[in-house]
Amino acid sequence: MVIEGCTVLVHDDHDGIGFTEDAAIVVRDGCVARIAPARAVADLPAAERIDGRGQVAMPGLVNCHTHAAMVVFRGSAEDLPVEEWFNDRVWPVETNLTDHDVRLGAQLACAEMIRGGVTTFADHYFAMDEVADVVRACGMRADLGWAYFSSQGPAGRERSLDFALRHRDGAGGRITTSLAPHATYTVSDADLRATAGLARDHGLRVHIHAAENRDQTDHSLARHGRTPVETLHRAGLLDVGVLIAHGTGILQRDLPVLSSGTGRIGVATAPRGYLKFAWDPTPVRLLRSIGIPVGLATDGAASNNTLDVWESMTLTALVQKAAEGDPRWLTAHQALDHATTQSARALGLDGRVGRLAPGHRADIILVDLTGPHVQPVHDTATALVHSARSSDVRTTIVDGRVLMRDRRLLTLDVPAVTAELRTRLPALLDRGHGGRIQHYDG
Amino acid sequence: MVIEGCTVLVHDDHDGIGFTEDAAIVVRDGCVARIAPARAVADLPAAERIDGRGQVAMPGLVNCHTHAAMVVFRGSAEDLPVEEWFNDRVWPVETNLTDHDVRLGAQLACAEMIRGGVTTFADHYFAMDEVADVVRACGMRADLGWAYFSSQGPAGRERSLDFALRHRDGAGGRITTSLAPHATYTVSDADLRATAGLARDHGLRVHIHAAENRDQTDHSLARHGRTPVETLHRAGLLDVGVLIAHGTGILQRDLPVLSSGTGRIGVATAPRGYLKFAWDPTPVRLLRSIGIPVGLATDGAASNNTLDVWESMTLTALVQKAAEGDPRWLTAHQALDHATTQSARALGLDGRVGRLAPGHRADIILVDLTGPHVQPVHDTATALVHSARSSDVRTTIVDGRVLMRDRRLLTLDVPAVTAELRTRLPALLDRGHGGRIQHYDG
Hints:
- The structure is a homodimer.
- Chain A is α/β, with parallel strands linked by helices.
- Helix content of chain A is about 35%, strand content about 25%.
- In chain A, helix 3 (about 130-140) links the parallel strand 7 (about 120-125) and strand 8.
- In chain A, helix 2 packs across helix 15, helix 12 packs across helix 13 and helix 13 crosses helix 14.
- At the A-B interface, helix 2, helix 9, helix 12, helix 14 and helix 15 of A face helix 2, helix 9, helix 12, helix 14 and helix 15 of B.
């Protein structure tokens, strides 16, 4: 495949971002084979040629932390503090989910993400065999983990391990897996330690909620005399690969602890939900100062309302300026760094995704910059971060396969999914049973 | 015209917002004639029928404060504190603008706004005859004011008055006009007083920047012993209709002053730029507590990057929750209230726009809620504010005339405008002359 005539977002050896104008991308066997001047490959024989004029080709976006199937609850639990959101709304209705609901939700979520230029997502949820099936069929890339609480006893952890071992390197390498203890406040210290052991024994990464907000950190300090990050450290989780969801409650005192970890640590930031819950943002500047990659995420749509990673990129730029009181901080180039290099590193997928460079998987999106809301383009990075929208993504490619062409989805049938989902809504939202999958006391 | 099969956003007598399902809107002579069940008007003869199934019909958005033509500088002055933004970037390049540049910019801006569901904008800029011409041709509604500084002498004020008198009630009533002193820090007290007198004599409103940020308020207190709002009060501007742009530096002590004003006072909030400049947000909760309408705005694209009022609506909901530390505050219904009733009141256009009700002008947008990023819809208000995007606006109607149908612009030619604009960019960005239109010392 040859994508020609586009502007290509490229990285230098120091993570710097630049743009090569009037270029072509040659894709072979699902990988980027070459980035060249368009005229140099004009006569190259190709099974498929894509006209990229007026568009920017960039690495597909990575959603570093989501619960894809929760799109079925999108907009059903609004304007609430997180305690009520969990205990009165979300955890009660999650008891209603069937495996098939998770499948429908994952299909809808993948449709939304492909349309929004997301090519990889890290999913932390239940009934993950269904999600793996959907990923296999729709062509996306994903890191999947089956969530568990200590309240489930050892069975939860065993199921998470079993899933991770069965699906690792699935779908021709598009599926990677992680162990998925829910959080430092729902999984006991002993179970976290056991998880770290399993991760080490099996070479798996761990994906976990920790220091989600400042209150959790304060509660942890009051109850245990240590922060959630210190809890991760004590359990040995910072010495295996770990992806920390949110981390808005990470404190200055956590920095040396994080630095001392011998595993690859990443943090996923989902800024929209933090605004809605009135949390602080993830301390991106602190984390950057010690070299911890911060990837972009959306969390589930029950809190975030969309799975729009492009919006997470834009909001990260905007909110970080305000939070630091510094208009010069978190430039458009830095935001693109989080969307590409840092997101890939947060998931341990650097070298494979996050760059358009020879040897990397051909996970590519084409973004239209000709719209009246983007023109004129004085600076391509700024145009991408501050003017373009996820709806300007016209083409989404994973492993060299086109999943969306000119905004038409090729691997998912949205009307069929939404029609079937509509029949399930009353049962899904029923809270008459009075149960819940877990109690929040973070 | 009949728009049928849609869900219609309607207001009750207490500004409450509701949704009428499977409804039809009958438009006659540019006005909403009737909202009825779809079946009740199925046989009504109509010159045009629009299929609104799967879509929400709502009042067109109002951009309560912008500098439309500044789209030509979009993205050219990034990551800077406001002093440098004004003095080193924007005010130098504004000396380069020709009347024709303003025309091109206004055309591009109107194209962007129509595509984003904006039907009315309040523009505060220079060469406003050009903007009036563009508004006349493209079919939008606008309140236009020719900006002036005291540094121009009396000529600036006279030109603003002359423009306002020549164009008031222009374009079949689609154009209203305001006097447009630039700001409390660039227009002297004497000139502000003279402006209030002219406004009273001629029955005009005044559109002005004031208390844009907390620093301006602090400087004003240090220099003059009064806040910018107290300056407006002293000049008599709170006793004529006044639209205050930004007001992020409005203090508690300003509330009784604002309440004592006998004119109709409104505030325009453009939250995106405040995040970029690391300003506080407009104190919406305080202003609501004294009944001052807060309308949504984008400011110019040189600071805001887009003219996306839909994003302003979403950001207002998000940022206000975070700023107040209260997830229950500024609900989706409240955000829609700001986008409709409060924006119309801020511009003094209530009774004419901001509602779909008999006798109101037929300024209507149709918003598609079938996309995978919006489905399923548990709550229509939440779906609009937190999941839908400006790109989901499919049809834009002003005064009963369709300006965009199924995302195709009918009154503006974007490729022609952007092609011509491209040739002007080097000259527009030239700062070699060392001049600027004004010095910022707010």
